[in-house]
Structure formats: structure tokens, C-alpha cells
Amino acid sequence: MSTTRRLPPFCRNLILLSVLLTSILLSACAANNESAKIIPAGVRENDRLVLTRADHNRIAEVRVGERIAVRLAENPTTGFTWAIDETNRRLLTLDGSDYLAPDVGFIGAKGQRTFQFTARQPGEMMLQFKYWRVWEGDGSVTDRFAVILHIVP
Asked: Which residue in 24, 27, 51, 78 has its CB near the most CB atoms, within 10 A?
């Protein structure tokens, strides 16, 4: 006489639950995931791409010859200023940098630093900035901004 051993009900339920969860996860992975879409960085304004703090750690696509402006809040009266930390001069040329003081507000209010670039050659690069006191060195860095640029022909 052969004896067949049956699993207790809680084990059968556990196996059924595992199979159900696995199938749900697999179907979710296979589905078109709208939240995984990459939102392009910046906005087009006056024939140039404008990047702001909201674009930190994002990806921007620009064409060769296109101008790029990076606008970041700055308060140079504290000694802190934005500086380029990493770039690729072969792909991207710095055209200039200027500071616009705040129109209204109290003494010491933040204005806006704008760096202006032109994309020169196709390629991919990281553009990084640091907010620091230059005379205190890298130990004074209090903020960073970075964006990946895809430069296309």
C-alpha cells in the first residue's frame, strides 16, 4: 500500500500566493511602464536650451551649434559662487558667464548666475558645477549641479 502525503493547507496557500505574486510582477515588468520614460531636461527659450536647478541629474539633448544656458541661484556676497567642475571643451564651448542681482529683497538675497555654452561636436558628456568658496578649496563645496548632454549632429 502506498501512502501519499499531502501538504497542509497553509503550505498550499503559500505556494499559490507565491505563484500569483510572481505572475503579477512578471506582467508588470513586461507592461509598458509610462513612469520609466525619461523626461528631457530644460526648456527651449529664444533659440537656446535653458537648464535650471530642476534639471539636476537629468539628460538633455542638443544639436551641434545650439546654445545652452545654465541658470543657478547664487549669492556671491557670502563668498560662494558657482564654478564649472567638469566639462568637455572639445564638445562644448563656454561662451560666457554673468550674474544678475535680485531686483527686490533684502541685502544678501540670492541672484542668478548664468553660464552660456555652445555645442561644438557630437558626443555625450557630463556637465558639472560646484557651489563653493574658491579660496577654501573643494572642502567648501556646499552644492552641486550636474546634467548629461547628448550632442547630436
From this structure: 51
